[in-house]
Write a structure and sequence with these properties.
about 300 residues, alpha/beta, TIM Barrel, Jelly Rolls, 2 domains, five-stranded antiparallel β-sheet, 4 helices, 15 strands, globular, alpha-L-fucosidase
């Protein structure tokens, strides 16, 4: 693997046929060899050590999805840990983010009688993977000529264009943002509307003693949206454990973890001048650090 330039990720699949003889797998030695040849590579398997399987092949993460997990509880090919892989562990001591794998077709291999999944299905997968703190990996099988089928390539292009259309415009930037408190001048809620989704963020005051934290967007004009995006400052860990979303005091969504990105799909909502979209953080591991907020319209 040292003949391909810089390789970002290598997969070690934990699947094994039911009638396959038992044998010893030297995963530890293989991982060490991979790191020798590609020092910055991410190794994927049921047990990480850098990226973990999400526990199913639907492309769906758990409604609760932690990047942390206990590596000592993981082993490759162990079907009893699939649920644990799907949710992660809030008390986990290892940072091993999940990756959702799914095929663009019904199965993993190309068949002449099959067609790629509908755009609506792929978008649903996106919201349930990327929108739940995961990486999404889509399998696109070569056809009998060794090439990617035109129908698959066309659907991928359509998928990419749809994602761009949904998230290109952040309607929250037409809003005024305020919060329950702020930590000094540097960590104000306005940081959630800039282009930096990693190093700038809102942090509440360390002296805040309320039962919950909140950050809200107050509209300055009429807007229409149906997606709410929340992102934590993931470089400083994953903290949010429970949150709710309100539009003018009416609860419209709730969830547990946020992580790098949480996407909530709502019914199409039109709100007028001076309306508010409030995110309540009811439980967190320490003060929540929110790096980005978004209101988007999904026409699909």
């Amino acid at each position: 693997i040292d003949s391909y330039g810089s390789v970002r990720e290598i997969w070690f699949d934990g699947a094994k046929g039911a009638n396959t003889p038992n044998m010893t797998y030297y995963f530890g030695d293989w991982f060490s060899t991979v790191k020798e040849l590609q020092s910055s590579i991410n190794i994927f398997s049921d047990a990480g050590p850098n990226v973990r399987w999400v526990g199913n092949e639907k492309g769906h993460a758990g409604e609760t999805c932690w990047s942390t997990i206990n590596a000592t509880s993981l082993s490759i090919g162990n079907a009893t840990i699939e649920s644990y892989l799907n949710t992660g562990d809030s008390k986990g001591t290892n940072w091993i983010p999940p990756e959702c794998d799914v095929s663009i077709r019904k199965g993993w291999f190309w068949h002449k009688t099959e067609t790629p999944k509908k755009l609506s299905t792929l978008l649903d997968t996106y919201y349930k993977s990327v929108g739940r703190n995961c990486v999404l990996l889509i399998n696109v099988p070569p056809n009998s000529t060794g090439l990617i089928s035109e129908s698959d390539a066309s659907r991928l292009k359509e998928f990419r264009e749809a994602i761009d259309e949904i998230f290109l415009v952040n309607l929250a930037r037409d809003c005024y943002v305020e919060a329950s408190s702020r930590r000094g001048h540097e960590f104000g809620p306005e940081n959630t509307l800039d282009d930096d989704h990693l190093s700038t963020y809102w942090a509440p005051s360390e002296d805040q003693d309320r039962g919950y934290y909140w950050i809200q967007l107050k509209t300055t004009k009429k807007i229409k949206f149906n997606v709410v995006r929340i992102q934590e400052a993931i470089g400083l860990g994953q903290r949010v454990e429970k949150h709710e979303i309100y539009i003018d005091r009416t609860k419209v969504a709730e969830g547990s973890t946020v992580g790098y990105k949480r996407l909530h799909r709502l019914n199409v909502t039109t709100i007028s001048d001076s309306s508010t979209v409030r995110i309540k953080i009811l439980k967190a591991k320490g003060a929540p650090l929110i790096s980005s907020l978004g209101l988007h319209f999904d026409p699909f």
